[in-house]
Amino acid sequence: MDDRTAAPAPRSRRERPAKPALTQAGIVAAAVRLMEAEGLPRVTMRRLAQELDTGPASLYVYVANTAELHAAILEHHLGTVDLTAAADPGRDWRERIAAVLESYTAVLFEHPALAHSALLARPAGPHYLALVEALLGLLDEGGVPAGQAAWGVDTLLQVATATAAEHSARTGAEAEAEHGAMVRALREADPARYPKVAATAGELVSGRPAERLAWTFRMLVNGVAATAR
Questions:
Q1: Nearest CA to 32 among 42, 23, 22, 20?
Q2: Which of 7, 182, 198, 217 has the fewest Cβ atoms nearer than 10 Å?
Q3: Are 63 and 72 in contact (CB under 8 A)?
Q4: Whole-model pTM?
Q5: Residue 78: CA count within 13 A, CB half-sphere
Q6: What is the chain's alpha carbon radius of gyration, rounded to the nearest angstrom?
Q7: Each residue of 153-187: pLDDT tens digit?
Q8: Quick one: fold of 82-226?
């Protein structure tokens, strides 16, 4: 047999390049890349294991389940929330809280599937703690008692998260058609039967989304400050 046509000798498994060791940071980074490429619903333990060329059992050493994995992705993106507004001495503390919450909501707006998942995800990393610390610090600056501030931060983040989740679920032509139908129903309400609706129909649908969101945050902050536990 011609040596040039001979089959190559099999390589020992020991000669193959070793795979990088798994780490929690590496797993989360791969999960973030997978979400950006294929969407959050595709980020499962099994799919991520395929991406990392390992078995799902290997991932469970670092991440308990898919819910915890999604929470880790959320924690990663919380690092992009702009907290610089919290340290701006030229603005009222209420305005600074609203600015931080608007940045948090904007991050979720950029990742619609993550916004919906954030309703159930429970991040617990340094970015989440920095966000809570900033909000608590601003409420303390405004003289809000610690107990009210603690419950208030939870409510503020819940409303911001729910707003982003609703936004993510209502996009496209169908959502616009539904909104148009609601606006028509309000504007055409029978003043004899619905006098308050007819009188305020214009105000009910007024304002840009960003304006309404900022007002919502200011209203909530004022409520937290004024409502004793």
A1: 42
A2: 7
A3: yes
A4: 0.81
A5: 23
A6: 25
A7: 999 999 999 998 887 776 667 878 888 999 999 99
A8: Tetracycline Repressor; domain 2 (1.10.357)
